[in-house]
Amino acid sequence: MLIAILLLVGMAILIYVVGLARVAIAERVTPSIEAMGLGAVVSFFDTLGIGSFAPTAAWLKFRRLVPDRLIPPTMVVGLTAPAMAESVIFLILLGVYVDPLLLFGCATATLLGGLFGAPLVARARVWVVQLTVAIGLLLAAAAYTMANLNLFPAGGTATGLPPGQAVAAIAASFGFGLLANFGVGNYAPTLVMLSLMGMDPRLSFPIMAAGGSLMGAGASIRHLQIRQIDLRVVIGLAIGGIPAVLVAAFIVKSMPLELLRWLVLVVVIYAAAVMLRAALLGRREQATQPGTTAVSIP
């Protein structure tokens, strides 16, 4: 089953690379230098367990690099490349220890959720996307706070789950994949869920990474077709992120992350507040224009 997952991830990598390269060459897109630096930083710390979606969304909002409604799909497509590198590394190092049915079920459910959610975010009103991203950022802030205060569930030593819990985990993974299209990362909720169920937290990483990379590949193809993304930022995040993942995985063994989490927490809360304010203002403006309808993407 592990070989099947690796082959599936390999196919996803090929489809993603071909799809992104074809669009980039056709439109002669050059990567954003700032996005390359951002991709390197967030992907480096993502490999160490900090997460990449929340700080990326915060920076894109803070710097106004991408319109609000394009932040989630731009992140999904751009950060899929480093997520794929992570998935290969974690699957090789830790995948053999995970219950193969749980690994396969959660990963494929996350993929299906990503496919289902991609067109939803493209059709959603701007204020809905802003509100969802704001909620995701606040949840990430809560996760950073819990991690620093040692309040995260300790987890257990299990390598798999009983049938009932496994079904629940697979169903939840579908939801995580769907929400990832709106900028809500799947790493933190997956880690918390599996730890509460008694899994060894270290074995959550191959599940999270495999699911994230498959979801990213499937959703990316949809987003590339819809074209509601900023390609310069996408390519910058992808190019900057891959080498950073390799450095973090193979060179850095341990480093103090608590201070960094507190710093990221401040930025994330600020971005969440700004995004929430924009969502509320957008909702109020829509309420005064009853004839306004959602943008529909053919």
Descriptive overview:
This protein has 298 residues and is an all-alpha fold. It has one domain (2-286). It is 75% helix and 0% strand. It contains eleven helices and no strands. The protein has helices at 2-27, 33-47, 53-63, 71-94, 100-123, 126-148, 163-180, 187-196, 204-226, 231-250, 258-287. Helix 4 (71-94) packs antiparallel against helix 9 (204-226) and helix 5 (100-123) runs parallel beside helix 7. The longest helix is centred in the last third of the chain and has 30 residues, at 258-287. It starts with a helix and ends in an 11-residue tail after the last helix.
Secondary structure elements and pairings:
Layout: H1 2-27, H2 33-47, H3 53-63, H4 71-94, H5 100-123, H6 126-148, H7 163-180, H8 187-196, H9 204-226, H10 231-250, H11 258-287
Offer a concise description of the structure:
With 298 residues, the chain is an all-alpha fold.
Please supply descriptive tags for the structure shown above:
disordered C terminus, 75% helix, 298 residues, mainly alpha
What integer is the average pLDDT?
86
- Work out the helix count: 11
Q: Which regions contain 5 or more consecutive residues with pLDDT less than 50?
A: 292-298
| Helix share bin | over 70%
| CA(first)-CA(last) distance | 38 Å
How many domains comprise the coordinates? 1
Radius of gyration, in angstroms, nearest whole number: 18 Å
| Largest sheet: number of strands, sense, barrel closure | none
